[in-house]
Amino acid sequence: MSASLVREHLQRQQEALKAELAREERKERKRDAREAAREAGGDETASKRRKRRRPVQSEEARELAEAFATERATKEFRAKKLAKKDRTLSKKQRRQLAQEAFTKEYEDFVTAETRDYETLNKRLDSASKKLTLKTNAQASKLLKRLAKRDQPSHRRLTEKARRRRKPFTLYGDGAREQE
Asked: Where is this chain compositionally biased, Basic and acidic residues type (predicted)?
């Protein structure tokens, strides 16, 4: 039994050696093919074939991507630098810088708002003029109506209309007249 185990072990070793030799031969063939291709003028490996299959970026697109990457990197670097500087500043200095930034931002906002406010004022003036004209007309109509109501003939007419609308009852206007 031990002899059969030894034979199997030797057989496995032989197979492993044959497989390794085959691998080495394949590698040599590939190397020879590459050298022949180089001598012929084209050094094309599998990775280059893959790259060739991919759509090639235009030069402008590549430059834009590089510029964007460098810009982003510089921004990040500056941000880190500023963060370091902020740590070196005292609390008072940081507060002062923040206050200055806020005042500048606020001044910009106020100038924009004043511009907006002036245009708004102009619009409001024109609208109020229109409104006053309208309200004046309405007020004059109302005054005329009130003046008309105070006239005795108008009063008599309205009372007659009221009587026509409501029949005489003890609970209505008639009750007041009886008292």
From this structure: 1-47, 56-65, 148-160
Residues across the chain: 179
**N-to-C CA span, the chain:** 141
3-state secondary structure of 151: coil
Q: Cα 136 from chain centroid?
A: 48
Q: Is 90 helix (H, G, I), strand (E, B) or coil?
A: coil
| Two tokens, residue 137 | 């007309």
CA atoms of 56 and 52, how far apart (whole Å): 8
Ordered mean pLDDT values, 10 residues apiece, the chain (179 residues)? 81 90 92 83 63 65 76 78 70 82 78 75 79 80 76 67 63 52
CB atoms within 10 A of CB 44: 14
CA diameter of the chain:
144
E strand intervals along the chain:
none
Residue type, 141: K
User: Looking at residue 41, what DSSP letter applies?
Assistant: T
Do 169 and 175 form a contact (C-beta atoms < 8 A)? yes
SS3 annotation, 11-50: HHHHHHHHHHHHHHHHHHHHHHHHHHHHHHCCCCCHHHHH
* Region for residue 166 given its phi and psi (left: phi exceeds 0; alpha: psi -120 to 50; beta: otherwise): beta
Residue 174, classified by CB atoms within 10 Å of its CB into exposed (0-12), middle (13-18) or buried (19+), is middle
Instruction: Supply 170's token pair.
Output: 């003890």
